[in-house]
Every structure is written in structure tokens, then in C-alpha cells.
Predict the 3D structure of the following.
Amino acid sequence: MPEQLFKVGSPSLASQYDHVMRLWIGLLISVPLISAHAPLHVSFPPLPCDYAVNQAQALSVTGDVPPYINGSLYHALFYSVGKWGGMISVNFAPTITASFGYINGPHCHVFEGRNRVQAGSNLTKGVAKSVEDKFKLTDVVTISSDPRSTKRVFSLSAVSEFAALDSRTLLTVEDPVELDGDSVGDDWQNNPEHLDIPMPRFFQPAHAPTDANGDLYGLLYIFNPKPAYRIWRLAKSSGKRTVFADVPSSQQFLDLAEPGPAYIHQCMLFTPRFIIIPEIPMRMSLPPTFDFKVIQDGWFGNKTGAGINFIVLEKKSGKVLGNFKAPSAYSWHGINAFEEGDQIFLDMTWQQNYTALDGFTNRRHAGQWWYYRGKYARYRMPSPSLDGSQAHILGRAIMSPLTKIGQPFVSPDFAVVHPGMMWRKRTRYIWGLATSDSYKDKPWLPHVIKVDTSRPDETPKSYTAEDDVRLGAPVYVPGGEQGAAEDDGSLIMLKYNISEPDHSYVVVLDATTMIERATIKLPVKPASNVGLHNHYSQYPSEAHELSRGTDVYV
């Protein structure tokens, strides 16, 4: 991997138009936007373009599903067919039912602005020739609750526009979602040449995290006039959006030959007083494209003085309070953050470098996670002064491992903690997916592990799927008894048997012992990939009281 950035030239307006046509219209009618995410794909037949399931009863339940699991599990299936994403929901009460819906509904015919085109037809004939035609989301990478209504969930991808779905039927009810309050601006960062086609106004991380009180946050990439991040907050209490002043990228991004903000998949972490932006030493691709190969080639972590920079903001105002630097590494996801004394602690995934993106670029070992050489890690840094006097002083962040690479697990990710403690206090346990030496040359993550962060040298407890099974990421649902142990609860996750093209499953694990408690057979066909991220809608009262809200992102 070269240390120099991928060199993006200054293409003519015509070539930019042609490039954006290929990328964004391709997104709208199921032509590949980027290289396929091969490690997640399995050999199921493609789902029909009009496939839908509406609250169908579970076919069978083997074992015992605890009564405190009474909310809804949502699972994102990006690129279910071509570039059309879908969502599965499993409602656990009053009876167990399942739904499936495409983002924006059936797509046997695709609508682009005012024009109707047959999927696969001449692209140029279906292009809406007015920027007034709004870009519509057709994919889903992550799912968040709508702070304004329990009857809707948000479908999110890497663009600023997102869709709202009915929380039971999974029918799209609004796309793009319009929010009351502050506007994110009219500077149209993704279209500097004002190309006359519908396209997203901004790119953003794939996650829009929810704070402990139910407020939803987003971050937009700003390229002009200078690289920065634009943060917004959708308040649960008022239902209105507040947009903070732009946060400048750190100097290492401004000094690049072609400056740009950092690519930050995980978006932000929270503590009771702070917002933390983890700037990975990897530049986002420049407008008007989102391209993982360009992003990966934008890694500069090998340069002298480069590193992860943590920008700490005051949560109330979004004001920059401090910057803290750690040695170069990559990180896909935040796990938890908390304050103790005069220190901030961040629990995150850690991968050694740019190779963590190989699963998206199909380079080197592609989706074989063992080669990413990852672990769970904890970063520590001093709490900055609230008066902003340390905003321009570069401090130091110290990393300590929470798991050991290859002892026996490697590259754990998709972690969850107790939802009543997330973003508020230290958690003892982390649950997530991982691989190991025995699965070195196999795709995906076959193990579910339980990490005791107070004993990082101990081997985590684990559950391992059969060779023909793929697991979705876990959600942790605590048991809800007052005074119960932190790990007194259950893990729930989607499960796919690659020899069964007509059914999906949910597996329930005892979070204390990591032993399987129940398996639920669903009348939902598997999509072409196992998906990544989940959302859970309702936790027991004990978790609800601790978190001061019912929703967290995973």
C-alpha cells in the first residue's frame, strides 16, 4: 500500500457527469456502485424484486425464548438484490412474527424523479433532468429508531438522505426524511459542478448513533471550502434537529496534497458530557464519488507523525475542547465510551491498518477476517477543560488491548454491551463476533465471544456456528431484574443455513454461559448476504431506566 494518496485529477464536466451517471444511476437501478462485499455473500437465489413479508407467524420455536425479550429486532440487509437493500424485522410480542421489506418497496420498475424506467434499460433515458428531483435512498447499512415515533425506524447508508419505514410492516413511509429544525445547509458538497441529476447532497458515515437519552446524531463530510465535519442532533424531547458549527479536520488532513476529511465508518462516540470523533488516518474519497478503493488508497498511517486523532467536543454545544493522538490503526466500530475521574475511556474495535477494508475492495485476502489482525481495544485520554482553553493543544491517547490477537480469537467486531450502561459507564462484558486460527482461510466470523474486560488475558467464552451456518451480529437484551448481574440476559441474532434457501432463523444464546437457549424458524427467505448491523426497539425496564431511553445503535 503506497503512503501517497490516490491522486484524483480534475476531470472535465462531461467526464464527471459520465462518472456520476455510472455510479449514482447505477445505485438507483441495481447496477454495482462499488465492488461487491464478497465475504458477506452466500449462494442463495436472488430474492424476487417484489418480495415482501408482512408480520408472518414464526414457523417453529425450539427451546425457550425468555419473556423479557418482547421488543423487535431489525436486521439490515444491504444490497439484497443488486443495489437494492432490504430489512428483516422479528417482533417478539405478543407473538413471534417476521417481516421483510425493500427500502422504497418493490423495484421491478424503478422510478427516477419524473421518469419511469425498466431496470436494466438504457440509463440515460431514465435520468431526471432537474436537481429538484430528490435523491431517494434504496439501500440500508444500519438502522436507527426515529426519536419522534415508535412506529417508524430509519434506514441509513453512507449518504445524508435516509428513509423511514413502518416499524411493523417495513413499508417505506417517507424517503427522503424531512426533519423539523435546522437545515444541514445548501452547499451541496457532493455536487461541486452542479451536475443536473438527482444525487445525495452529502456523504456521511454508515452509522447515525443514538445517545443514552434517545437523541439521534449524524455527521456529514465537508470538503469545501475546507475539510470538516458537520454534526447534527435530532432531539428525542422535541423532535427537532440542531446543526452544530462545522468541526475542522485535524491538521494532518489539511496538509495532504489533496485535503479532505477522514473516512469514519463508526461516526461518533458519546459520554455524558462529550462527543468524540475518531479521525482514522485515511482520507474520504473526494466528491462526487464514494469509492472504497479510493478510500483505502487514501491511507497515510505509515507517514511519520500520522495517527488516530480523537476530537473531543462539548456535547451541549458541539464546541471543540481538545484533540488527542494515538498511533496509527484502523477502527470499524465504537463499542462504548465513559468517563471516570478526569479521564475519558473509549472501547473500540482495532485493526492494524488499511487492510481492514479488503473485504470491501476484494484486495489481498478480501473477506478473510483473520488477516485483518484485529482486537478490541480501550483508549484513554484526559478530559479537556470545558472552557475550550485546550482546543488547540494536541494531547496523547493511550491504547490498551481488551483481547489478545490469536489467543485464540482474531479480529472481533460487531460488539455489544449492556444497553443501560452504554455511553454512561464502564462495562465489564463485551459480546461480539470473531474468527480464529482454525478458520483462518474461511470468510466471515463463525464465533460469538464474551469478553471479560476486567480480565483481558483470559480466553473469552464462546459459541461457534456449524460450518454451513452464517450468523448476523448479536444484540444483547438484559433480563431486567433489579440488581441482576450485568451479563444476566440473552443474545439474539439472525442465523442462516446455507443449505436452506427458503427460511431464516433467529438464535437465542444465554449471555452468561454462551449456551444456545432457543432457535426460531422464520418464513423469510435469506437475502444474498448475511447483513451486518441490527437495531433493537425495546429493552426491559431496568435497562430503560439506566439508559434514559429505549434505543441504542449496534
Observations:
- Residues 1-39, 111-132, 542-554 have pLDDT under 50 and may be disordered.
